Amino acid sequence: MNADSFQQLDKVIHEKNRMAIMSLLAASQELSFTDIRESLSMTDGNLITHIRTLQKAGYVAVSKSFKDRRPLTTCRLTTEGIDAFSGYVDLLEGIVKQARAAK
Hints:
The chain is of the alpha+beta class. Helix content is 63%, strand content 17%.
């Protein structure tokens, strides 16, 4: 197995909660903060921290609006986020294939 493959993993995405957020957003065009929080059983503070990290990396865009006079925060993957997540998944698939071939 090629140890360099592990060094190439995107450390921003690789953290389990951020990988879960990216996975949810990759499967949807846009999700509300509440939907993400409930789907992943995360606290507000924990989710905010991870979303900010993904936002700083340019992977997630956050929009604030109102729905029925209530604040609504939504998140979506940016083009850079889609590309980064796709590359991350491809690299993981390669690592898994290498591991299976080594058996």
